[in-house]
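[audit] Reproducing an earlier prediction to check determinism. Same input, same settings, fresh worker. If the tokens differ from the archived copy the diff job will pick it up downstream; this log only records the rerun itself.
[audit] input (83 residues):
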Amino acid sequence: MIGGVLVERTIKEVLPAVHRNKEGLEEVVARMKEALESKKKEMTEFELKYKIRIRKGGGGGADEEGSMKEASAQGVLVGPASQ
């Protein structure tokens, strides 16, 4: 059974294909890692060139969003739901 499909093949026939697929996936992973490192380097150079600082912390954006919701909700009256 291969991927939920019953096939008539022997291990001798299937094993080389599995090894080729594994090698191909390892090559793809290696290329992706290289691309990731390249992009990290490019991003660091861009940050240095334009003097960009990235804030690392989770509290800043949520507070601003919450205060905006409160400001827009001011003055709203809600009456009884049932009549």
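[audit] rerun output stored. Observation attached for the diff report: The radius of gyration is 28 Å.
[audit] end
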